[in-house]
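The instructor's notes for this session suggest beginning with a concrete chain rather than abstract definitions. Hand out the sequence below and ask the class to guess, before any prediction is shown, which regions might be ordered.
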Amino acid sequence: MKGKIKYAFTAAVWLHPSPGGWHFVSVPKIIADEIRTNLSGLETGWGRLKATAAVGNSIWETAIWFDTKMNTYLLPLKAGIRKSENLAAGENVAVTIWI
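After discussion, reveal the predicted structure:
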C-alpha cells in the first residue's frame, strides 16, 4: 500500500466473551507501542485508526482499536473474513496491516 506503514505479525484469533462476541487478533505489544508512539495523532474516537488488513488471500479496509485494558490495538475479524479464510478462535494467523 503506497504511502502507508506496513506491519506484519502472527497472533491468535480470540473471541470476546460477550454474548455474540466479536473475533479479534491482538497486535503484539511491541508493534502497538510503535504505532501508538508514532501514529496516535491519527486516532479518532476510542483510539480508532483506519487501516488496511490482509489475512491469507483476503484484503479489506478496516480499523484497529486501542484497548486500554489490554494495552494494545485490536483488529476485528468479521465473519466473512473468518469464513473465507477458514479461521476459528484459538488459531494462529499471519496478519499484515497498513496504516
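Then share the key points. The chain has two helices and six strands. The CA atoms of residues 33 and 45 lie 18 Å apart.
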